[in-house]
Amino acid sequence: MDPELSRLLQLPSAILGADPQLKYALRASVMARSPLEDITYPTITEFLLEHKITPFRFVIFPQMSVKWKPLAQQDHRKEVPDIGVGHFCHDPPFFKLRFGVEAKRILPTLTHLPEPSQIESMTAVKAAFHLLWFQGEDQAKAFVKNHYNLEGRIRYLLFVGPYWTLVEYGPFSEAQLTVRSHKVSRSGDWFETVRLEARMQQAPKQLELYLLGTDASYRKLSELFAVTDIPAIPMLQATQSYGMNG
Q1: H/E segment holding residue 100
Q2: Which of these, 150, 96, 158, 115, lies nearest to 133 by C-alpha position?
Q3: Residue 106 — φ and ψ, nearest 5°?
Q4: DSSP state of 114
Q5: What one-character-per-residue DSSP string does 39-59 give?
Q6: Alpha carbon 114 to its chain's center
Q7: Does residue 15 fall inside a structural domain?
Q8: Residue 158 lies in a domain
Q9: What's this model's pTM, rounded to 2 decimal places?
Q10: Tally of domains within the chain
């Protein structure tokens, strides 16, 4: 057996401090021999909803369809983020994004849920998040081109099963907005295409990971919502005051 895999299987499970019903959902999402992403999405959603301390604090928009070229009516290419967290608004594009979420199913060797710090340096884990990083970047570019973003930079939660990391994308140049990694655009800027391909070939970096259900994960998500509350103030005020004057 591979030494890295052998060490992984001997690691104890992480301590989960979440409410019992959330821990139950989390365990259910990783119990199948080949857990599906379809189970991962609602699990993530339940943990995000822990932070909806007022009814209007944020909206969860599943499986958004975001056009790659919003001004080209005949171009049907699109990005489909797993989850968008943000706000409805009454001006185009009628939804503003706090942060996006992209998720893949858990690696089979992680289903006993070891501590995140114990798996961050593992080759398979780094490789999984490396690929996911570029998929999230493509989606962030589509959000920018459609004017969904609240800020110049776009925050993203990348999940492999219940393990996640927080990344930021942008701001992007006009040339960078023409290229994407997972679906090559023939009209993309040549120089930025070369740069993107070079970045994709780089060795995967070790990222700081969190595990849903742990106290550290709850604190980090709380920080994220607190930070994104600030640019969302106009949307929060509009939602809260809507209809108050008749």
Answers
A1: strand 95-104
A2: 158
A3: -65, 150
A4: B
A5: HHHHHHHHHHHTT--STTS-E
A6: 21
A7: no
A8: yes
A9: 0.93
A10: 1
